[in-house]
User: Fold this.
Amino acid sequence: MNERPTALVTGASRGIGAAVAEALGPTHHVILNGRDEESLAAVAAGLPAARVWPAELTGVTEADVAGIERLDVLVHSAGINRMGRIADLPAAAWRETLEVNVVAVAELTRLLLPALRRAEGHVVCVNSGSGQRANPEWGAYAASKFALKAFADALRLEEPRLRVTTVYPGRTATDMQRELRSYEGGEFEPEKYLTPQSVARAVLAAVTAGPDAHLTELTLRPRGGPVN
Assistant:
């Protein structure tokens, strides 16, 4: 019997990351990354083969990933959003946003490249509609997501034996969205948003495409809901 392929999902304690882990769970051994060990354990408990890896990604080193010899799927779902007008947002907010949303992604991928190459694996970057369009007060977040697209595009060209997919979800019913709507002074209306499970199904479609297929970009928007 063949061993299950291995997938590592960041931000897997809740929201889109947890939904992606659950979508991959029936077929993959899933490594769940996040900062909330209790929540990670709850997600892992519902999967056939999983382990938790509680870690702050901005501090990951080669020693932290030394046990991962082969990696079939790496899903970057962790991220933060610091809202504010450019006139008001301090440099620290920009640095934190770029550190988490871009630098940590690049470094984790770099550290795992040997394992990904062995498997001729797949890297999925969960981006955002803000990676395609920047709106007022979303400058730092949009800048990080545009940079994440550039990272994925460059990785795809530099590592032709890997598949690299960028997924651009619109507004999704997550805790982050609830916080954003509070900042915007609007109601949290989950019926108007994508579900995390819908985004996860898009990730699964990219991962399970035939060996001859390379889905490079997927854009999702809520039906009848907000476009940004």
